């Protein structure tokens, strides 16, 4: 392993090592575009709850049941139909994410996302065409598979193409898009719910196509991930992709250095592992072992769900009604707006304070809010003070989630896996998000419904406890990855424990002289063949 030069980066002061080119606005925008995929995720999870509450939809998809209070003109769907329509999406996304983990290694990251948009569009067509639960459910299942492709592989793609100094911020942009998707869904539902024709549900459903179209066509203009090309031994294509992303000529020193590092790291890792599904579970419990990393990624997404955030987004409206609040719909919109407005804070803090700090303090912030809601709501249930406390601390709670765990859980899973198993590791972690999303969505009504657990505000004791576990999880298991290239993260995991990781400073490179010579020859030839793109900088500062 080469030690040709020591990168002088000090990640705690935010200085960047010399390996990567300076981040240009164009490069930033190119990498950030993929974040748009979050809209698909957010909009799709969000639009169905409003549609299910629409009167025309109840008449069209329901069956006669005059005893149900929620029925419209005596029409409503059975409970199992309602829960199937809602949860079948998570079922599709779970399997979609897992399958995409293999596909992204076969056909590439970018192509997998584009394929995801295609699959998603077929699902949307079925939903729009449906007039009964029989067609709606397969439509949601197929759309879910597409969302699974997109949600897993966008994180992978963004983490692999982003410059390391802004990788956290760029991946946080994905979470920001999720929150916008959720907000757009409630606005569209709000706009069409009064219609007494099929437009009431077909408009919100058709709008899903717009997001898929923008994402799918936009991605055609972006390069494939250079790390995928390295994996495929296509160093020429990797150099070209890097030069587009970094806005540098293909034979510039920046591109040569970065590519040499990617190639050398991949060669080094392939000496110790292969890239099958089985390899994801090898390597034991050492901090750099694959098994440990996969468990970390899956647990990270599980814990993100156990913060209890979707209790507010999926059941907030009905919960606020249950505890006697009249303006429950408005409160739900407010929580969605707080979610959108707080997420951009993380663009800065995730790079400045780091992933660990955000996760630890974010969970502490959430648990304090949750215990306050639970205690006040239990001591003085239904009082004005308890209701005010519920609204105010729910907003603080969403603020803490949106500015910490929301984005950071995605950032971390994009960073912790070595290239040979990265696609599968991210896919497994994303599948875990959807699995727990589904499980929590299914069990929550049993905790709060009046004919079931009827916990009312006491349910926040449960979320407060799970958030306390999140603090321990972040403190003991999550390493600090800010300011490092993905290759440096590998080295850091080999040499530190989570608690000492933030002190680690890059001290040598993977690239040896042979790799550097290989890359030098190839990029010089490409430069001479006039394949260079980007700006006129040809040498490193
Ligand atoms: C979570 C979703 C949640 C959303 C809220 C995402 O990071 O994975 O389950 O609904 O954030 O903004």
UniProtKB/TrEMBL annotation:
Molecular functions per Gene Ontology: carbohydrate:proton symporter activity
Alphabetized Gene3D superfamilies for the sequence: MFS general substrate transporter like domains
Transmembrane segments: 27-48, 84-104, 111-129, 141-158, 165-185, 205-222, 306-323, 329-350, 357-379, 385-413, 425-448, 460-478
Gene Ontology CC annotations of this record: membrane
UniProt membrane topology term: Multi-pass membrane protein
Keyword Transmembrane in record: yes
Domain of life of the source: Eukaryota
Keywords associated with the record: Membrane, Transmembrane, Transmembrane helix, Transport
Localization terms from the record: Membrane
CDD domains recorded: MFS_HXT (cd17356)
InterPro entries, per database record: MFS_dom (IPR020846), MFS_sugar_transport-like (IPR005828), MFS_Sugar_Transporters (IPR050360), MFS_trans_sf (IPR036259), Sugar/inositol_transpt (IPR003663), Sugar_transporter_CS (IPR005829)
Major localization class: membrane
Domain Major facilitator superfamily (MFS) profile span(s) in chain numbering: 30-482
UniProt keyword Nucleus present: no
UniProt similarity note: Belongs to the major facilitator superfamily. Sugar transporter (TC 2.A.1.1) family.
UniProt-listed NCBIfam families: SP
Name of the molecule in the record: General substrate transporter
Source organism (scientific name): Lepidopterella palustris CBS 459.81
Lineage: Eukaryota, Fungi, Dikarya, Ascomycota, Pezizomycotina
